[in-house]
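Q: Hi! First time asking for a complex rather than a single chain. Here are the components, and I think there are two in total. Is that enough to go on?
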Amino acid sequence: MSTYAARLPGGGSPSRQWSRGLVISVTALVVLAPLLLILYQSLLDAPFFDPAASAGVGAYRFIFDDPDFWSAAKNSCFIAVGMAVIAVPLGAALAFLMVRTDLPGQRWLEPMLLIPVFVSPMVLSFGYVVAAGPVGFYSVWFGDLFGGVPWNVYSLTSIAAIAGLTHVPHVYLYASAALKNLGSDVEEAARMSGASALRVALDVSLPMVMPALLYSAVLVFFLGFEIFGLALVLGDPEGHLVLATYLYKLTNKLGTPSYHLMAAVAVCIIAVTVPLVMLQRHLMKNAAKYVSVKGKAGRQRPLPLGAWRWLAAALIAGWLFLTVVVPLSGIALRSVVNYWGEGVVLADVLTLDHFRTVFGQPTLMRGIWNTVLIGVIGGGLAVACYTAIAFATHRQPDGWSRFVDYLVLVPRAVPGLLAGLAFLWVFLFIPFLSPLRSTIFAVWLAYTVVWLAYGLRLVSSSLLQVGAELEEAARSAGASRARASRDVTLPLIRHGLLASWLLVFMIFEREYSTAVYLLNPGTEVIGSLLVSLWATGGADMVAALSVINVVLVGIGLGVALRFGVKLHD
Amino acid sequence: MKSMRLALALCASASLSVAHAQAPADYPADYAAVIAAARQEGKVRIYAATDTAAASPLIKDFEALYPGVKVEYSDMNTTELYNRVISEKAAGGTSGDVFWSSSMDLQIKLVNDGFALTYKSPEVAKLPEWAVWRNEGYGTTYEPIVFIYNKRLLKPEEVPQSHAELAKMLAANPERFKGKLTSYDIEKSGVGFLLITQDAKLNPAFWDLAKAIGAASPRFQSSSGTMMERIGSGENLLGFNIIGSYALLRAKKDPGIGIVMPKDYTLVMSRIMFIAKTAQNSNAAKLWLDYILSKRGQTIIANQSELGSIRADVEGDLTAHGLAKALGSALKPIQVGPGLLTYLDQAKRLEFIKQWQQTAALRK
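A: Yes, that's all I need. Here is the structure of the assembled complex.
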């Protein structure tokens, strides 16, 4: 039974209320300013800064009359559903196997599982084309062996499958974070009463991580509506549009960028996600009943899998092969050859020139440096912000917390491309911000807001599992609310926070679309450089930079693991 | 002692650079004032939709020619460039001094909408008439629009040499080219749209060609990089309306890529450059524009940037001069002027897209 701390005597000291108010208003401002700009833009018939712009619903009429919009909406739904159906069960199973069982090789497996999160979808899809496209080297090899290739990477099903498989880590991270904070005593009890490993997983562990799974299911579904790079590279040639590529197409369809149409599509996407948030709220109402870190320490003991362990290991290896080895070997190979394809002997065309070119260009080098900076320092700052927001709403179930809950989910639903554009406008038209536009701060702010839902859920997932009675104990011993948060809650979630930092670091490393419109001398990051180089035909450079990106993240992760930021205890 | 030597060295290099920065001989007498003012400004900010790799020899040479004037070069795509220019002007903050883009229609729209500074370059007499509009927008490059194909997979006799042959071949072997033909998706690429409407204007049998293209289930892409990558790998066999400068650069690295300049007509695209009306560094911007149009700049454009020289007095394969020898009157440069604005009219544009989709695109 949890009592709400807010109702305890002295629950809201004035300074505490003041800082809470500040955190909530700043969050509201940075989330709502770009959003309102998008809404406002969607109701005009020209760019909002054009003196000739007039109000109307013409933009909506245009897109609703366009059959492409409906086909894109249908495809987006298909992909979002497909992703959730694939990623949630796989991610949950993976988390259970990794955290709760004696699966062989967990130590070295854990960092591998996260690789799909590191790589920008642009790069992954490019990797798939090189590796598994009609003349990709895995396809050619497979065709030689079996006389044909049964897959088509350009089909809608493939896009949904790839998107689903590459989003398994997102679910895994949420589910395993929840599982790690869970004592295994209940599971052991079930086990001792004679339940099988599967039975324990389904009937005991699954219900305990349900909140984390529901969160991640909704988020994966959101991400499904935002899929851009994959659909752009793989869906384009056969004409499969999704909402984000439809939006991108509107940039050029009328010759000049049609912001009002793009904004109208973005508003439609947000309109889809709002009911989802409501649904999630409904499902989460009784979150308190899942509280499981109690005042009593719960030891975790791995569940013996027996003979099943080899099957489990084989399944994980198969998934890793499909989502990591295939695309990354493709991109790595592409980065060291001059050209490739049917009838090319790869040994003849090996080269390191692409890397030499990258290292010789100051812009690209600055991009690499900025990417490191925004991941390490920016990621840490972002997690600090997320933690502040999480504490502002933690166990204070009032109107403001509900407001923040809805608020933070919205920016993620806006396609990164357009969110970046909205931030460009914000930085352009708000006078005191404009000097910051060509600094990396602009990119950092955009990234932090775009990934708000993501980081916050991770932080608050950990927070939610700290029993209220621990804080209450501190409070009854005379500690102030702030002191209880600082000395009790914060230390308890430190692993969660470090894992969040790592996750945010990886996400910031791979983000690509948000920074496109903010690209300036000084604000280059690898993600936006990739898009820019891809558009101008620099496939060589794209491959080399992608490899550098993956290596950077690999080094970062290695350092983190070395210094004890363990992803599981 | 050390600092003294350093100071001496600095003085020496300063006087050296002054010697460098003389106005070219045939420029007006007051040009030295422009150079001096540009020195004061110290830099020129360029927004360009041209690869940094292609521009860096120009930047290096320019900075060597005019020491003290630094080039801040921002490489972005054509849509971003347009978007950046109009929104920055509306916001009234800092913006670029020079805009340089291959999206000829958007550049002309900007010029037409009053974004350009009127400035008669001393080089204007050396440029073809079609390349200059109102002494504001200047064509700076000479880039033929070509077919490319996979040399390993397409036999020499299968390679079409003209638009007419392309139509004939596609009609004769629809199976051979099924799913193997590539070009721009005109809805996603402004350049692709511009090129196809130029085709429609120049080629009397255009819609027959479109029909033949449609029968081959073409794979349309939004960027030339993707098209070249897929032709190079053999996933696609043949591409049309490819920007020749990119193709030549690629063919140098990938011997599997072949290039054809169509014999019946070869479109020629030219990157348009103009100085911003609100340029903060307008003198440095003038130096840059004049340098790009000068014989010195154009020689680098032709030989190092591989973008093709527009000047008749620059020799080489990839110059207006060299191409004229090979193709003669088949060369059809796209006029830098208000004609480019036709299809920025929404109704006309959508009408054309619809007709093209119904005839040639995979999605009907």
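A: The first helix of chain B runs from residue 2 to 20. Let me know if you'd like any chain examined more closely.
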